[in-house]
Amino acid sequence: MMEKAQSDCPYPGCFFCVMKEANPSKRRASVLKFFRELPSQDDDGQVLPISGLWNTAMAHPNDPEFINLGIFECMSALIWKGLKNRRWLSHDQNIYIPYYAAHIIGSYTMNMEEFAERAVRAGVIPPLVELLRGRLTWVEQRVAVRALGHLATYPSTFPAVADHGEVLELAIQLASSSLEIVYSHFYQFVDRRLGYHCDLLTRGMGGVEMESRKAEEWASQLQCWSLQLINCFAFKSEFLHDICKADFLVKLPGMWGGLVNENSPAGVGLLRTICQSKLGRGHVANIPGVVEALCNIARSSDDWQYMAVDCLFWLVQDSNTCHKVIDRVASTLIDLADISMLGDYKKLGDTIVTMLQECMQQHANSRNSISTHTKEQIDELLSSKQSLKLEKNMPKGDLHIKQAAALVVKLEGNSLFSSGNIAGAAAKYSEALALCPMKSKKERVVLYSNRAQCYLLLQQPLAAISDATRALCLHSPLNRHAKSLWRRAQAYDMLGLAKESLLDAILFINECSQSNDPDLSLKQNKVPDYAERLVKKQMRAAWLFREAALKHGGIHCEGEASDAFGQEADDSEWETASESDAENDATGEADDETEWKKDGHQENLYEKS
């Protein structure tokens, strides 16, 4: 292979010994020779230097030394060798080499466009595309789509990726089927798992349970990295017709990184890119279910909430799609109108008000008119904002009178609720909201949240979600009012929206763990039983492999809905004040009243982040 670098090393041409060479010139010459000769060698132990290079690429992806010495040419040749020479691939530990080679290419092209250009000139794309086809296994597909996604990110190298016309189609297929592939080829049958897959997943540090957890994480990455590659194509209008197929777009809102890959915007990130173009917005507006799913994400406590809001904004601001979507998105945008900052938006609520007002004016005399119900909702929003302006010039005494009147009506609602008159209590909370000053945000949080509880008990989950969302938007910090999170989690559960319910339930538990309120704080650091039950239920329902498991017989549905939450799906908010089912329902309400004392200046007990 190479001259012996160290006299005491038993392996001629040992790469690790070469790297210890003190003379930089000699080391570079030896490494250059190593990269050139490695693909033609059939010696045992080749995986060792490749795994070493993998570690180096992960730790120092911006280091140009190996780039200049031919590492891309070497990795490309090794992948081809694995694809064409199955005898060599099955010998010793060579089965690992194509995986490591593709991973090394992806790491070195992750940050530097110059490196990506060198990789393209070295011919890495054709062998990566072959891996993407599934010529080996899903493990190699994962690192191939990662590398191609990095290459497609840069303007100078995207055309080289796009020249392989099948890349986009393969990525779409992989995004749609990746979870099923990993489940059926690895997760489902423990005794059929390939040994090298298990080793790569756990690095020899875990058993079956660790393998399964890592497989879920890798499956999510396979899907999310496929979506990232598609996203690069979505910025080019000539590829949108291929991307915007109804059967694919309708799946995108449901593609998320899960709890194991929460840093990826996944499906909603791709929808956001699609909605930036007129052509893309046209497709999104016309496909049933996509806009509604974006509304759910926009209302949720998802980290990518702002991306869904972007999509809704662009759809409403486009005159070609506004009339198609306004009746579906208006209620969501109105619920969010009290948010001040979200993502890059500094005054989100003002933007929503202005946009809806312009939409009303544009459609005043149009054939594509807005429904009467939507007009009433928008008029109510505009009226509330006008009231807020008037309050700025109102004497403090008058504001206190309004606030006191609202408190009296709220207490009447509490009394009706305690006596079991839930509809009457909801009406009183509505009356109190009409009286309560718009600037009294803490008080309005309580009223919206309490009315949401009434709607829950009245089996009106949509209304409960709307009110809980308004409470969460008014609250500071945003989306952190514990009781509203719990109520909305229950409402989402009633609608079968497992992911949204799960996120709210987890945030509720988090808020309880940090709360100073004795009724909300976790007793002895123990998660309340009712919250634990809901989380477990939604973890099963939102499990990444759920659909694949149902399809392949890995889940039998008996008792799933009942034993997870059972009769306690309608547990009232008042139970959130205590683990005991026997607590008086009014207990939680009495706690809420503390926010009304001292002219609203008492510290909000639920404000801890």
TrEMBL record:
Residues 7-245 form the ARM repeat N-terminal plant domain. InterPro entries: ARM-like, ARM-type_fold, ARM_7, TPR-like_helical_dom_sf. Residues 561-609 are annotated as: Disordered. Residues 568-594 have a biased composition (Acidic residues). Residues 595-609 have a biased composition (Basic and acidic residues). This is ARM repeat N-terminal plant domain-containing protein. It comes from Oryza brachyantha (malo sina).
